[in-house]
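Writing this down once: the sequence line spells out the residues, with the fold written below as integer tokens. I am pasting one below:
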Amino acid sequence: MRISLVRQSGFTLIELVMVIVILGILSAVAIPKFVDLSGDAQAAATQALAGAITSGSVINVAVRRVNPAKGQVVSDCTHGARLIEGGLPAGYTLGGSLPLPVPAGTDVVCTLNGPNSSSASATLTGIL
């Protein structure tokens, strides 16, 4: 009589438990990273808008130097909203404590405040 043992393949219970434990540890570490992505996205949007205002100021200075009749007058921080197409989006304010009016050719740092307490700095050049 011949007894034939069939070799079975598969994972043991210990291997399956170890995989579940490892996945649990990875998810406990990874999930908090993704929970606050909206706050990070809002801060990045505010910084991007501040960069756009700074770039608009540089372009405005170049336009005014070529043709003084063109471009925008910038004599305080609130005028920075004129330097981007469509103005500031809803929920954003641009301000700062500066001596007014800002002298022509002087760079000033203004604070852009966005939703969810995000803020960034924008540099404007005074133009009369």
